[in-house]
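User: Modeling request: complex.
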Amino acid sequence: MTELFGIGTKYEIACSRQQRLAVVLLKDGRRELYAFEAGGNADEPSAVIHLDEEEARRVAAVLLGTYFQD
Amino acid sequence: MTELFGIGTKYEIACSRQQRLAVVLLKDGRRELYAFEAGGNADEPSAVIHLDEEEARRVAAVLLGTYFQD
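Assistant: Request completed. Predicted assembly structure:
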């Protein structure tokens, strides 16, 4: 966990396939997800996903298997 | 939600920045996260993130703001 002063908090998560994932919780509630590939540039994510609070909740629910819709 | 017979379940989530996110829950517990860019090829994700169950739980907890570590 890294405190980004004035901005938010960054969490880094190593994934099994040697990818790296960073999640930044911004102070205003938005989330940013950065995906880094193994062997790729550590400063250049292969994707950046921007989520607001509602979207983050939905993604989290799907990941946990607790999301249901009609 | 789309049933992928024999494979798992796919959830599509539209994001505010006109990105599209697809989460696939595989029957063996693994999750795949696909990020698609606005205006990009709908069949070619800009990133694919592979998560096992434990990693998915960790990412979900961070997104929800309920993840704490030392």
